[in-house]
């Protein structure tokens, strides 16, 4: 099991050939109170860096991009009912979707935890 | 730091906002607090439950003096200013020759020869020039040396009374000059949230002192521009530049109630021909409330379609209403679609979402009726 991060503040936790994707604590903090989430349905094809999900705060709507290419295995239905989970547990229960990787080599282009932390520190 | 950032103006409460942990953003040329650490949602709900303090010092405060400034101002606005009693406040708009809206504003009468106006920050310099050009014989002064604070919410009056005893019983849409915590202020009982409250004009050099006094009152918390916008949207109140502008008339904007009987009969304001014809025949399109059936917010510029997919209008303000606990919006539709209950669709990220035209406001106004 390994976790990777994107510059757009998504995380992907990979187990075997399936990655669980969410947004980082930094992202939820920047967004503010999340009031709406739209997750992709199982079977949808995703491309690395392409639109995958939507997250909206009171003020603004943001896209969540897929960190990898692949096929959606499951969207987190609980998020539609309780979007505030994204603020409470962004890197745990508030995962957005699970994706079956079509090209695991894409993970090499992502950051590990230490690199992401350094990236975020540079933004502040 | 970019050029636009270095050129931003600040309000007299700038250091207080930073001390309170506000997230500052550029707005109408000013660095303004969009939210404090509590966040937009909490700030919004707090204002509806207790009381919120807003810094609106970026807005323009103007005094007009002359022999009969009310009669002079009627050449620029369709509202009844001559009939505005001393100590009374009224909402109005500046119109242009085509019947469009140049700005919306509050007009208060301080005396037979003196009016006090509050205009939008983004329009204040244009408004000022407009008045200087057209109000011949009047002196028009921008009060750059004053700040403006708004105290809003169901507990605002009780909290305010502790430091402003003269505020007790002050009527809705009236203006009075009195001491607040020993500071002479010009106070209107009005606001932009749909709640009871006050807008307090205070000398700039006493503004921070006053804000600290008000923030120390029971139930009062600082509220940013983010919650100010969601509060006014739920209250069905127009944001100039989004819901009304030069392309919309007061009749289309649904604020034709600002045009008094005498003005309807006599005209004599910019765009009267267009506006009076719309009053007589009904406008081609109207501003309405739009309630999405689902949970997805529809933001400004979202296309409104009929059930066959024909584009019929556009959302002008939209988002999530924390008190409604769901998405709320307003926008323009043809008159035939303006009846409450009319089914429409909203094009959000390429999907047609079901929605209905609804009566505004989304949350009932709770103004002081004493």
From TrEMBL, chain A:
The keyword NAD does not apply. SUPFAM superfamilies: Single hybrid motif. Binds 1 lipoyl cofactor covalently. Its cofactor is (R)-lipoate. Residues 18-100 form the Lipoyl-binding domain. One of its GO terms (biological process) is protein lipoylation. The modification N6-lipoyllysine is found at residue 59. InterPro entries: 2-oxoA_DH_lipoyl-BS, Biotin_lipoyl, GCV_H, GCV_H/Fam206, GCV_H_sub, Single_hybrid_motif. It comes from the Bacteria. Keywords: Lipoyl. The keyword Nucleotide-binding does not apply. GO terms for cellular component: cytosol; glycine cleavage complex. The glycine cleavage system catalyzes the degradation of glycine. The H protein shuttles the methylamine group of glycine from the P protein to the T protein. The glycine cleavage system is composed of four proteins: P, T, L and H. Belongs to the GcvH family. This is Glycine cleavage system H protein.
């Amino acid at each position: 099991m390994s976790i990777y991060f994107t510059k757009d503040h998504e995380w992907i936790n990979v187990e075997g050939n399936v990655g669980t994707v969410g947004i980082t604590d930094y992202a939820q903090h920047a967004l503010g109170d999340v009031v709406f989430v739209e997750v992709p349905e199982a079977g949808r094809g995703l491309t690395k860096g392409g639109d995958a999900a939507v997250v909206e705060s009171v003020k603004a709507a943001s896209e969540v991009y897929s960190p990898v290419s692949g096929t959606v295995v499951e969207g987190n239905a609980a998020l539609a009912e309780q979007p505030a989970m994204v603020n409470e547990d962004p890197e745990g229960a508030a995962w957005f979707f699970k994706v079956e990787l079509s090209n695991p080599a894409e993970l090499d282009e992502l950051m590990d935890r230490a690199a992401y932390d350094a990236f975020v520190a540079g933004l502040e | 730091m970019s050029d636009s950032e270095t050129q931003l103006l600040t309000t007299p409460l700038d250091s207080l906002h930073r001390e309170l942990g506000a997230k500052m953003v550029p707005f109408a040329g000013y660095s303004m607090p969009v939210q404090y650490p509590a966040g937009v949602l909490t700030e919004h709900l707090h204002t509806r439950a207790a009381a919120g303090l807003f810094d609106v010092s970026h807005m323009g405060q103007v005094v007009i003096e002359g022999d009969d400034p009310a009669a002079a101002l009627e050449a620029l606005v369709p509202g009844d200013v001559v009939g505005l009693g001393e100590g009374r406040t009224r909402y109005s708009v500046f119109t242009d020759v085509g019947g469009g809206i140049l700005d919306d504003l509050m007009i208060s009468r301080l005396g037979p020869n003196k009016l006090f106006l509050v205009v939008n920050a983004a329009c204040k310099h244009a408004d000022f020039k407009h008045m200087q050009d057209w109000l011949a014989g009047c002196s028009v002064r921008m009060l750059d040396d004053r700040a403006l604070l708004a105290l809003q919410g169901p507990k605002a009056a009780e909290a305010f009374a502790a430091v402003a005893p003269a505020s007790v019983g002050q009527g809705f849409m009236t203006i009075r000059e009195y001491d607040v915590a020993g500071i002479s202020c010009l106070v209107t009982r009005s606001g932009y949230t749909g709640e009871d409250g006050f807008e307090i004009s205070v000398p700039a050099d006493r503004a921070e002192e006053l804000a600290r006094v008000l923030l120390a009152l029971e139930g009062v918390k600082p509220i940013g521009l983010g919650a100010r916008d969601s509060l006014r949207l739920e209250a069905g109140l127009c944001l100039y530049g989004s819901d009304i502008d030069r392309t919309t008339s007061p009749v289309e904007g649904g604020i034709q109630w600002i045009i008094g009987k005498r003005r309807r009969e006599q005209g004599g304001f910019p765009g009267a021909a267009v506006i009076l014809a719309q009053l007589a025949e009904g406008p081609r399109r109207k501003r309405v409330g739009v309630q999405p059936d689902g949970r997805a917010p529809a933001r400004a510029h979202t296309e409104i379609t009929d059930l066959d997919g024909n584009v019929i209008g556009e959302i002008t303000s939209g988002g999530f209403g924390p008190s409604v606990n769901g998405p709320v919006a307003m926008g323009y539709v043809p008159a035939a679609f303006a009846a409450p209950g009319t089914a429409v669709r909203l094009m959000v990220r390429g999907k047609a979402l079901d929605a209905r035209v609804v009566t505004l406001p989304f949350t009932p106004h709770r103004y002081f009726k004493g």
